[in-house]
Structure formats: C-alpha cells, structure tokens
Amino acid sequence: MKQDCILFGAAYYDEYMPYDRIETDMQMIKKAGMNTIRIAESTWSTWEPQEGEFDFTHLDRMLDASEKYGLNVIVGTPTYAVPTWLVRLYPDILPVTHGGQNLYGPRQNMDITHPMYLKYAERMIRKLMERVQGRSNVIGFQLDNETKAYDTCSKYAQQQFVSYMKEQYPDINEFNHEFGLDYWSNRINNWADFPDIRATINGSLGAEYEKFQRKLVTDFFAWQAAIVREYATPDQFITQNFDYEWRNYSFGMQPLVNQFEAAKCMDVAGVDIYHPSESDLTGAEIAFGGSMGRGIKGSNYLVLETEAQGNLGWLPYEGQLRLQAYSHISSGSNSVMYWHWHSIHNSFETYWKGLLSHDFSENVTYKEAMQIGAEFNAIGSQIKNLQKKNKVAFMLDNASLTGLKWFPISDSLNYNDIMRWLYDAFYHQNIECDVIPVTYDNLADYELIVIPALYSASEATLARINAYVESGGHILVTFKSAFSNEHLKVYSDAQPHALTNCLGITYDQFTIPKNVTLGSNGNSYEVSEWLELVTPSTAEVWNSYEHKHWSKYAAITHNEYGKGTATYLACYFDQKYLEQVIARLWTKLGNEMPSIQFPLICKEGINDEGQLVQFYFNYSDDDQTFVYNANDGVALLDNKEIHKGDSITIPSWDCLIVKHSI
Amino acid sequence: MKQDCILFGAAYYDEYMPYDRIETDMQMIKKAGMNTIRIAESTWSTWEPQEGEFDFTHLDRMLDASEKYGLNVIVGTPTYAVPTWLVRLYPDILPVTHGGQNLYGPRQNMDITHPMYLKYAERMIRKLMERVQGRSNVIGFQLDNETKAYDTCSKYAQQQFVSYMKEQYPDINEFNHEFGLDYWSNRINNWADFPDIRATINGSLGAEYEKFQRKLVTDFFAWQAAIVREYATPDQFITQNFDYEWRNYSFGMQPLVNQFEAAKCMDVAGVDIYHPSESDLTGAEIAFGGSMGRGIKGSNYLVLETEAQGNLGWLPYEGQLRLQAYSHISSGSNSVMYWHWHSIHNSFETYWKGLLSHDFSENVTYKEAMQIGAEFNAIGSQIKNLQKKNKVAFMLDNASLTGLKWFPISDSLNYNDIMRWLYDAFYHQNIECDVIPVTYDNLADYELIVIPALYSASEATLARINAYVESGGHILVTFKSAFSNEHLKVYSDAQPHALTNCLGITYDQFTIPKNVTLGSNGNSYEVSEWLELVTPSTAEVWNSYEHKHWSKYAAITHNEYGKGTATYLACYFDQKYLEQVIARLWTKLGNEMPSIQFPLICKEGINDEGQLVQFYFNYSDDDQTFVYNANDGVALLDNKEIHKGDSITIPSWDCLIVKHSI
Amino acid sequence: MKQDCILFGAAYYDEYMPYDRIETDMQMIKKAGMNTIRIAESTWSTWEPQEGEFDFTHLDRMLDASEKYGLNVIVGTPTYAVPTWLVRLYPDILPVTHGGQNLYGPRQNMDITHPMYLKYAERMIRKLMERVQGRSNVIGFQLDNETKAYDTCSKYAQQQFVSYMKEQYPDINEFNHEFGLDYWSNRINNWADFPDIRATINGSLGAEYEKFQRKLVTDFFAWQAAIVREYATPDQFITQNFDYEWRNYSFGMQPLVNQFEAAKCMDVAGVDIYHPSESDLTGAEIAFGGSMGRGIKGSNYLVLETEAQGNLGWLPYEGQLRLQAYSHISSGSNSVMYWHWHSIHNSFETYWKGLLSHDFSENVTYKEAMQIGAEFNAIGSQIKNLQKKNKVAFMLDNASLTGLKWFPISDSLNYNDIMRWLYDAFYHQNIECDVIPVTYDNLADYELIVIPALYSASEATLARINAYVESGGHILVTFKSAFSNEHLKVYSDAQPHALTNCLGITYDQFTIPKNVTLGSNGNSYEVSEWLELVTPSTAEVWNSYEHKHWSKYAAITHNEYGKGTATYLACYFDQKYLEQVIARLWTKLGNEMPSIQFPLICKEGINDEGQLVQFYFNYSDDDQTFVYNANDGVALLDNKEIHKGDSITIPSWDCLIVKHSI
C-alpha cells in the first residue's frame, strides 16, 4: 500500500494521563513535526466499564483534539486485554495453558476461542466502529495488538483441534502412523480418547498443536477484519501491529503467528521493532524487521511501534533517534511511530519510556524528534514508498522453527539464531535481503535464496526448491534442512532427503562438535553446536573438518545442479568465516562485493519518482570515511551535489541520503 | 526497656530431646554462666495434641527445672505453626498464595486472617497463659515468632483488602485514576469486580497489597498482645522475635513487616541476627541488625536468637563466639540468646547447630560460652543498657523497598543492597549510625540523615525532609529517591520532585551504565547498575561521568539549602570511592574522621553509670595495632588502666573494652 | 544365571516402522552376527487399542520373522506406559506427585497402586503371555521397564503408607518421638490426622516415604513375576531392565529402587548402561554399571540396553563400539543389546539414535557391529559367564543416598558423587571392585570393604561392620557415615557413633572447608565441600588439615581394630590424592599395586573352562604401550601366544584379550 506521506507520530493514551493535558500534548506533537497518533488498543475496560455500559469520553477527546490539530489517527480495536467484569461473568475466559490456569492481570491471557469472549469482543468492536465512523482524520484501523493464541489450551481450543485433526485424517490409523503414536503407548485409537494436549511428548503432535494455534490467530484476524470492514471507508486501511520473536528486543521471526497468512485479510503490514541502543545499536534488527515487514505482504509496511527512549538502557545517544528513523525508512517503511508519546506513571511499563519523560518536558530526545519531523516534512515525499530490488531472499518457515524447538540442536542455537547468523553476515557486508515464505511462488525473482535450517519441509516445498535450482537459481542451505516432513516425521531415506541430488551430498550421521575447527588462510575457526558428517557425491568440497576422527567428512560444499548451484553449510561456525564463505559465493555468482562494510551501512530503494535513494549510515562512535562510488547525485538533507569518487566522512551515528538516477 | 542484667542463654526444647536430660541440661546451662532460656514458640501440636485436649507436661518440666536452677524464662506463644488436626478440620486454614495452594508441612504457612485459625489460636494462647501465670521466673512473653502474613491471598485476606481499599477510596474512579488501572484494561469499575490480586501486573496495586499484608502483621500482634496482657504481670515484658531480610543470613530491612508499627504493642524489641562466620565474619550484620533493633522502639533491644555453631560453614574460630557476643552488647543489645541450646536430631534444621552438638558434650564452642558467661557475670552491669548518641541516622522505608521490587533497578541491586552499600561504608570507617522510619518526628536529633533510594515518598515525608534541611540538617540522598508517591505513581513534574530545590538539581533521563567511570585522584571507579543524567541548578558538582555521551551530566552533587546541605548520589559506584565521598562530606560538616578503620571496629555507648564504654574489635585473622586516642580509662576485662596515646595491640578475633568519662 | 552364548542384539520395534521392512531388518540383524531382539515393552496402546480389544499383529510379525531367522526374543510386558482410553476411563490413574497433577503424555506417569491400573495391566499381561506361550525362540521375559513408583502420592499410595507406618508403630507416640515430629508442631497425634505427605519438611518422614515408594516397586515386580511365571517355561528367564541414577548418562546407584530387593523375584538382573562417548569415553560407567549389575543378584547379568550411536554427541569414534562391547563382557555381562535397532522417526527420542540411522543404511557404526558379531561368534564361548574374584567391595545403600538428599552436604556433592569419587579412584588404578548391599551376610568374602557416606545406618548394620573388622576385615569409610539411624534420627552420642572404637576417632564439629588443603610430598591438595574436625583416640593420623584454625584436627586416619583395620576419610578432597591414599592402604594390606593405570584398563574373570581371561583396554586417542606381566597365554582375537615380559602396544580405542591359566 502506498502512502501520501511518511507517518510520523506516537501512540497516545489520554486515558492514562495524570491530569488533563490533551491540548498541550497535541501542540507538542505538532511542534515535533508529527502527523499521526495511534490510539485505543488496550482500552476495553475504559470504553465499556460495565457490561453493556459504554463511555467514549477519552476516545472523543482524542478524536476531537487530533482533528483540531490536523493529525491523522490510527484506531486500534481494544480486544487484547479483557475487562474485570467479563472475567467475573465468565471466569473460564481465562484459559488453561501449558503453564496452568491463567489468572487476571496480564494482557493477552484470555481464550480467543471462547464463545463469550468473541461475543462481547464483537459488540465492543461494533460500538467503537460506530463511534468512529465518519471521522475524517481516522486513516486506518489496527486489529487488536501483537495478537497470538496466548497458548490457549481451553476445552474450546482443544475440541477445535480434534476436529481439525479428524478432518485431515478420516482414517485414525493413518493419523497414528504419520504421527508415530505407537511410541510409548501414545496411540489414540478413538477420537474420543484424545488426551489433554498439554503434556504430550510427541513432537509431531505438539508442533501440530502450535501450528493450529497459529491458525487460530489467522482466523481471529479474518473475523475481526470482516467486522471492521463493515464500517470502514475504502481509503481507511486495516493493519495489525505484528511483533517478532522477543529476546528483550525484536530478534527474529515470530514463532507464534504465520504472519504471511495472517496478513492476507489486511491492507498493509504493521510491525513493531525494538532493538538495543546506545553502544549496542547496529541497525541489524531494524534491517531484519524491515525485511520481514516488507515480506509479510510483499510491499511497503508501517512501523507502528518503535522505541523513543525505550526500555532501561536504551537511552539514545545524540543522533541515534534520527539514525534509527532513517534506518526504518531505508528498509521501505512508510512510518516511524513511537511507542509511546509519554512515559506511563503507573502499572507495568513505567520504565519503558516514551518520547516524553514522566515530567512531560521537552527533553533532548524530544528535541531530536523535532529535527526528524522537520526533515521528514522537507524531504519525506522523496523517500517514501521506497521499492527494493534485492537479489537475495531468505526463505523462512514457522514450522521449521517449531520443529527445532521440539527437537533442539542445543540450548543456545535455535532457528532464529541460525537465521540471524546468516542474515547478519549479509547485513555486515551490505548485501540487502528480502524475506519470503516457503510457499512463495516466484522463486525466480531472486538470484540467491538463503535457506536456514528448513527442518520441516514438505515434498512440495522441496520440489519447488529443486526446480528453482534446475532452472538457474542458487541456494545457500544450512545443516538441519529437509530432515523431516511437515509433521516432523523424519524422512527415512538418505539425508538431506529430496535435496541430496541438488546439493550433491549425503550424510547419515552427525554429532556435537568438540575441539573441531575449519581452517582458512592460516586461521582456524571454531565449529560449535552442530556438525554433520557429509560425504559429497557430485559436490565440490569447500572445506572439511580439522579433527582426528571427522576429517574425512565435508563441512562446506558447493554443487552445480541443472543451471544453478547449491551450497551447503553442514555445521555452525564462527560468523567471521561465514562472511568469507558468503563473499566467495557471491563473487562466484558474478556479483561484486560492496566496498563498504559495517559499521558503515548502505541501504537503498527506488522512490516514487523512479530515482534511486541511497542511505549511508554510520553505526559507530567514531567518524567513518569512504569513497562514494555510485552515480552522481544530490545529498537530500543539505541539497548538495555528490560525485562518484568523492571521499565522504559520516560523523558518528549520522547518515547521508543521496538521490540519483539508476 | 532497661534490664537488670544481660540476658545470656539459649532457646530450649525439652520436647525435642532424644532422652530425658533436663537436669543435666540445666546444670550445663548454669555452668556456662547463662541465666535465661526461651521456650515454647512452635509447640502447638505438643501442648494441644487433639482439638481441645491439652498436655503441658513438657512446659511444666521446663518451668520447674529452670526455677530449680534459678534461670529466667521467656515464653513464646506457639501460634506460628499449626497442628495436623486443625488442618484436617479446616483444610483452607492453609491458604493460596502467589505460589499456589499451601500444603501441610512447613511452619508459617497458615492464613492469619482465617477465623478458625484465630479462634483456635486464641484458646491455645489463653490455656498457655493460664498455665504459666504465677511462675515467678517467667520474665517475659514472645508473641509468635518471626511473624509475617506468609503471603496469604485467601478469600478472607482478599475480602479484607477490598474493604481496606474501599475505605480509602469512596470514589472508585479516584482509585482507578490513582492506581492507573486504565492501563491494559485493568479498570475495576465496581468493587464486586475486584479480581484475584495474585496475578496483577499493576505495581501500584501489587505493592498496596503487600502494604496491606504488613498491616495484617501489625494487627495480628496487637490482637495477641491484648490477650497476653490479660494474664501478664506488669514486670513481665512482651516482645517478638523480629527477623530481617534473609539472604541465608540477616542482610537488611525486613520487607514483609513494618517493624516500627508492629512493635508499638510491645515493651521491647527482640530480634534475631544471623551472619556469616569463620573468615567471612565482619560484624557488619551485627552492627546493622543492632541499629535496626534499637530503631524499632528507639531503645535498647534484645537479641533473642543468634548463632552458636550456626548453619553449615559458620563454625566459629577460637574467639569469634565471644567477639560476637560483645559486638551485640556494644550495639545496645541487652541479651545474647543462642538459637539454640542443642542440635536437633530430626526433621529440618538438623544442621543448624546449637551450642551443643548432637552428642551433648562440652565442645569447644560451649567452652567459649563459659568464658563469655563468666565475663558477663563479672562486668555485665557496666555494659548493659548502653545508650548511643549517634549523629547519623538512616531513614528506611518498607514501601520504597517494595516499590523497587515492583520496579527493579536490576536483578542484582535492590533496596537493601543500596542501603547496605551505604551502611557498610559508614561502618568500615567507624561512624556509628541509627535507623529511623520515614515517619520519624524529630529529624533534628541528627546531624546527617542518610536516605537510600526513597523511591516511594509521600508529599508529607518530602516536606518534612525539606524542612529539616532548611533548618540546618544535612541529608545524603541516593538515586531513585522521591520518584513516586505512596502508591508508586510516578510524580509528573521534574525529578526528583519535591527535592529538586533542596538538592539543587534536576533530571528527566537515566540509563544503565556501560563503560562509565568516576575519576578521583588519578583512579577510575566503576559506575554500574544505574545512572541518572543530572543537571545542577544550584548544586555544586562533586563529580561527573567519564563517558563520551554522558560527561555533561553530574554524578555527585552537593547543595546548600537553607541552613543545611543536601548531597546527591546520582549513580551506583564502587564502594571504595563511596567511602571517600562520605569522608569528604563528613569532614565538610565539621567532623573528624575516626583514626581507625575496618578490620578494627570501635563501637561505644553510655552505661548506667553515665560512663562511656568503648569496644575495640579486631575482625581479622591477624593482630591489629592502633594508638588509643580517647580519654584515659580502664580496660574492663583485666581492670588495667589505659592512657591516651597508648599503642595497643588487639589479637586476632579479640576485643578490648574500655570505660572512661565522657 | 549362566548363558549358552553371549546375547548380541537390539531392541526392535516393528510397530514404529515408517514402512514394512521386517524381512530386511531381520536379514541385517543376522548379517551383523546378532542373535537376539528385545520387543514389546511400551506397546499397550498397540496391543489393546480399545478396552478389551486386542490386536497382536505386530507381535506376531516379530515372533514369526525372528523365528524364521533363528533369532532369540526377549519379550517385555507393556505396562510402563498406559493407553489413552484407560486414562479417559480412570483419569486418576495419573496421580498427583510432588510436582502436582500428572497429565497424559509421558511414559511412567501412572499410579502403580491404582486398583484399576493393576486390574487392566494384569489382563494385558495375561493376554500377551497367552499369545507368546509356546514360542520356542522366546528365551525370557522382561517385567515392565526401568520401573519406579514414579513418585505416586495418590490417595491409594498415601493410605498404604499410613498403614505401613501404623504397622511399624502400634504406639503413635513412639512414632512421633522417633521421627521428631514435635518439631515445628508437626505431631500426628491420631493416624486420621496424617497430612498430605508431599510438603513435609521432616526429613525422617520424607525419606521414609521414599523408602516406602521403593518397596512399592519391589512389590510390583513380585506381583508381575507371579503372573508371568504362570505362563513361562522353566528355561525362560524373568528379568527387568534396571537403570541407574541418571545424569544424562548412567552415573551411580539408582535412588528410587532397591535393586537388591527388587530382583529377588527374578532369574537374572538386566541393566541399561549409557555413558559419554567420543573423547569423553573412559569405561568408568561401564565398569560401575557392571559392578552394580553383578551385585544385584551376585551373579552374571545382562546388558539389555546400551548405546549404539546414542544420544547427541555420543557418536562413537572408530573402534569405540567394539571397545564398549568387550568392556561390558569383561565386567561379567552375558549380553550386549543396543537400544535400539533403528532411529525413530517421530515423537521424543528421535535423536537418541539406534544402530541404524533414520535411513536404515549400513552406516559405519553398523559395520563395526558386524565386526563385533563376527568376533563374538568366534570367541564368545570363551568369554561368557565370566566369574570375578574381587578383593574389594563397595557397600552401597539407598537409604543413605536418600538421607543425604534430605540433609545435603552441598549442591554439588551427593551420595553418588562420593561413591564415584572412590570407585573411579580404584578404577583408574585397575583394582576391580564388587558392589554389595548393607544387608550382605558374608562380608568376610572381601579383603577390603569401601563404605561411602553410610549416613543412615542401623545398629545392626554397624554391629556387622564392627564384627567384620574385629575378625580381620578392612574397611575404608568416609565422612558422614554412621551419623544417623535408619530413620535419619541423628545418633546422640559421640560421632561416628558405633564406629568410634573401630575407627579409633571421634568428632563433634564439622564445617565447609574454605582455603583448606592437605599436603603430601610437597604438593597441596584442595579440600572442598565437607570437613570433619576429627580427634584420634587410638587411630594413627595419616594427614591433618593445612589451615590456621583446623590444623589440630585429623583429616585421614588409620586404626588397627581387632584383627583388621579401619581407615577414615574425614573430608572430601582432590581425587589425585585419593588415589595415593588408596595405594598406601592397598600396599599396607599386603597387595601389590597394578603396574598399569588409566587410560590403560585391565579387567578379568574366570571363564567356563576355568581359565583366566584378561581384557586390556586403551581408552585414549593415542597408542599405549605396557609390559605384560601375567602368565603366558594366548591372545584370543588373533590366536597368538603372549609371554610374560612382552612389550605390548594397544592402538587407540582398541583392546587385547588374553586367556591363560590362573
């Protein structure tokens, strides 16, 4: 979805304010050059204080005030936290989960399959939509917020799950066979015998329930979207604030939602991206979050939440807030929306600070936002709706992530670790990457597809990959790929199953490396966590293990297959050496390696005018100098000409934006 | 409360003995120079073996034998552990807590708000008091033992809590506003909707429930005291055995009891103090526990429990048991009571050894107790009832402790860590300190008030502090003070709110320090855990951060305000440097720094004769020599004269006690 | 029980196979030289898919195919995992445990005291036995698998426990006294008051419940054995697959089963032994597991499960699978049975790999098994039924293990740690050891009895030990022995109670060592975890503590008592020094120390011909050379003569087997 302008703003909570300051706030928002607020996403108990009694005082105030100051509004449906009275009426709206019986207090702890939750949520949404209808400054709607199935294992959810399995397996014996339930006497010989799923030790069944929970999320969005669309005008968009795997910051692919599927009912993908700051700011999370955000609907996306002062320890150094803002834009985001405007005085996220501190003063972070706002107003039209033409895509898959949770490599290396190991190695070397799902139809869009640990792969997926390589594509595949089918049943032929020919290798044993290294140019790089004992058939061996007993096996192989090539990493090793392997592959494919490297980062896209916009970022405490070697162009922020061959210095935590012809 | 003599003795449990040895024990107690035993505090199932059947065999034996040997007795009410039959009758006397449903087994796991618990406990107490009445060697009563609310979240407790909130907030909307319950849809729009408190994520509400639980303890004591007083004679005291924050030893302020409030119904404060021993013995826990013990009722106190052989790894080296005994006395304790006489042969605390080992022989620890007993008999009258005249007080506050639990600085730095960081820095330099509550009326009693992390501070408290400084007092305040009100609602003006003028500073941002130091005299001291970006208004900057981005902000400031001064520590840093800062402040206030330092510790007080008694302790494995520079006096233990200017050597783990005129 | 041949084979699961391959598998088993499969131990839901409906398709297939290929079969009763329908019928077949309410999914989580479990299990066993009856290649039956009481705390189990206590204590007051229940008001004054055992803090009571749970296991086996014997022929053996304390491998004595008692109803002990592999393979677990296996019934035993490729990280280096096989045989095992034939494609143990990988190919591990099979066929008759004549026995005791769980020394040193500290020190020096229970009648069978931490010891046991030493036996006893009686009541006289005279020492204090060492030959060895302050009466002091305060106490003593000697280790210290102490003792007793040491290991036994068979193993990555100094003999594997004085080199991970006259 294209935007008319970059949305710049913050989440706003009139209902949280210690005293009435809505006019002052709107003025300060305006003063910062902002144009949008996001409201209402966790307000059910405020809008509906008692069953059937509605009170939209705060909503009306925010709509009125924003209208007065010419601000856009994104309205969230307030369904991701339930009011106390609803739990009093229907205590089992708080379900059991793998962790036991939920209690009232936290958000996101209700049963999204409970009929009464759905009934009351629907009425709440309809009342809200009725109230908002006709408000011209409402530009879009956010369905719920960071939605999951919250691990519901309620009777409603489990009954649905049994029906879902039954439908897939008319013959219960086939189900038992496919899922291996003879093991440890786990057979379910009658659907009525289906036991509580929560303690299953069967990885196939446990993972299937997680897949089913992801489907509950997709279904939930479709249900809400249908309701909202009854009221929304065609130019009002529907989105959701998707979040990523959380490791105290946005780390990787979201395990609990199939975002590609879930977003099908939406107009535009919205995401939240949080990342370490201060000396730990690298831009990698912004880049990955952006790749994923673009990938969700294959288009531009909205950053609906990102940090201003952020969590404890994320207070931006001078320049960082602005650096972050352009980092999002350079990934193809059409917005920078802070969570949140003000720092909250009570409850839980008191130290997850907003743009303003608790004292509402114009602090240094707010002042930097003013600069961003001014610049967006000046050059925003030239850097919005950026289109990427990346040659590399990462093929990512929830089911494989879940598979490696049930059958872990180790305590410290899971799916997203492997993915980021690869992603960051590309990022450091300034090769921009897209993200695609395993169901992606047009693999030929890309020159190279990176396939991290595709542990759970259907025959259809593997056939599509093979066909891609045969017809000239290139793949970079890691260990633990194509090992099991879509139900985590391990394939019973040579590994890696249907990819053996394509990769030109085979293996039947693997282990945990101890004192194993890979040598290159006189250096030894540590192999850790996982190692496969690969024997090449047709593949060229790029490296073998340094180890008394495993030295006869290959560690890295490269194979020509059809018109393409397939490269295999049979073990996990030092990222420094991974960068060398990627460079070797990238140049072998006929590409030139970018001349600058992290902490200098370059990202680019084509703007609405058809011009290439390049962003050069300095992610470090020191000034960085490089030779500009793209086409002559103009530096947008100071409108100066820039020429190929110029030596350019970017100050610490600063950036340069150049526009030029392609 | 004044004592006629130092109480020296141990807890005694006739009912635990593997065979009848009461006569032998009383003789051994007597032989050790002891004069007191403490009995009965966990004996309900022994005194009342079945509902309504009472059996005081063991009680009578202990009273008879102690009387025969001229020993005092302190009798505890046996209510802190319930009998099996009571739980069979009323299973829900074991309440739910945050940890789930309690089961029978541990002590201190019943619901002190349960009507049936209270009913049966009252009858038990009355039966016991009737039995004890008229026993002339019973000198006092201990109410229960180490009492808490044991985190009861029973329906009784939660109903009382709702009533307690309702009373404070006739208008439920004010309650919602003050506690910020709009956040995450947590509003309680009707008191009947009040959800189970246990899973609340609202820090204000959660902390208020903990405050309410502390009030339950205060109420419980008042209830027991009233019963006991019906039977006690005027010269029999009422006390309680208060304990401190437990980190496998007595570390800091007790989070679960407001001891200042709780002790109002008592005659004298009793405490237990446990501390590391062997090479880890420093005396700091004894000193802090003593400051707190004195502070509870602003008077002398009783050490009702301390270690003899103690927990595993606390076997005293030669001299340490005696050193510890005088350390307690020098803090103003009027007793040294060991927990416990003999080591228990069964159950749970088998390896928390008493004065005697399991074999009841005269082991080396017992023999050292004999020396202590002999010395107490010789000089006890000159060192009891010691009065302190300390210039420094620590203002301590349960609510701030709880506040920093809900809004933690870090995993490793909580309220008591900060308090002890400061307290120990004073202790190491031989500046003795008192402890006072935030409600203390006569701040002007002190020259310097140390205020660690007063995170939750009412306007009234802050006004009292300001007035104190205005009229000539001095305060030393740390980071995280005056940040939120009494309901943990963050103040919404400049930080540190009402103290900004007094401290002459302001700040609106803070972070976790990474590679930040403070320089002093060519050394760099690490800043860790917490750092505020302070800007002085009127304050003098004593130090600033060594860091590229934070160097413009102040780390330590000192401000003249009215007739007094206010010093602020905006971050947490190396304790070595803190000692320098304290010395700078202390001399600036016109005091001289003590000439000796840890491991030589000097503590002092004025005895009943009006003479100053000074204790010099050597807390180390090596002899320590110093120049005595107080008035000429007499060394009490060997009755030798001692003169100003004498060079004195104190052997390892030994002490010197000097009495002289003031 | 003697065997006709070494049983070599694997667990086989036709019901788990992804496709029909039973013929191929039987051929491959045969090709590997194997002769036995073990089947059926977790198949209830397959054999009885619905209540009362039986389906023995897979059983029949396996019996038919194995018969066709001349393979022996061991049939397991399938009772250690319950079918889903049984849990639907009787949900409380899944009991509460200390961890709460069990849910369906894991194996071994049912209540073995539940009447309905027993009823249905009996029918299942009878149906299976009827089906198997008359099958000539079925050589034996395994009762259940790795059986425990699974911590059942169901009402059935707890009621039985109360009856069991009642029977022991007709006078409830004696029970209260012996168990110390006056403590913390825990008295049970009426059997009807008996509280839920799960939260008891009384170590005596808690440990007694664990002893009772071990008795449940013994009773369960007796019940199953009686049923199976109704159907079995006299030449079909009854066994069980006993496992050991599990620390991700078989570490030490099994805490939850008294295997000596449990095996009384069986013909032969079966065990599983898993151990680290690759560079961590030492043979120590195989040796200890073998000592224990022999000890269970005082005879040869069967290794019913051991690893082929094993758990992740245990992929055998070349030679290791064969080295392991002979290591088992050299301990007196009459079998090497892998768990399991093939790697499982679903569920839970997918990465606990079998002999075959998931692809069923002839991998390198399978090929090494072929070599083992060929060699067993060639020389098996000369190395089976090996009889040991060890001079040293370890006296091991479940109750002491449990005692030290309730009264732990430290987080890192428990009973099995102490036992292995000693066992491995003997192992490293090639002194082979037996294992005996505390009830062992003929202590005089041994020259030296090693007694690790016999914390819980009845008077009878201690009297038997004293008598053994008096009449010429030798004991090596560690700290923490003879401290408490059989109910964990600490003895109330001088420690170590009844052993004071025999050991010639006494002590009444102990602590955790800090900076304590033992000196020997100019080296200092660390003392850690535990230290007793021992005073010798008649004992010779072999070493004392290096420490300012503890140096007056003895650390290691040696006493002559009657015709024997008693050596005491009063602390835990560096194993290197322990080996020196053992060598000193061993030579003092008139023995010669073996000339080779780990990584060269020598184990031996007398075969059916009355010849001595010696196995020399090289547990290292390097070749090892030694001088052969036993009688002239013949190397069995290559049939070469070998002479005393020969210099022999054993390649890395290889072995030499020599047969010679005694």
CATH architecture tag of the largest domain in chain A: Alpha-Beta Barrel
Largest interface: A-C, 45 and 53 residues
Strand content of chain A: 15-25%
Residue stretches of chain A low in confidence (pLDDT < 50, at least 5 long) are none
Mean pLDDT over all positions of chain A: 98
CATH-assigned homologous superfamily of the largest domain in chain A: Glycosidases
Main sheet overview of chain A: 9 strands, parallel
**Assigned CATH class of the largest domain in chain A:** Alpha Beta
| N-to-C CA distance of chain A | 23 Å
Lateral arrangement of strands in the main beta sheet of chain A: 7-6-3-2-1-13-12-11-8
Number of helices, counting only DSSP H or I runs of 4 residues or more of chain A: 17
Number of domains of chain A: 3
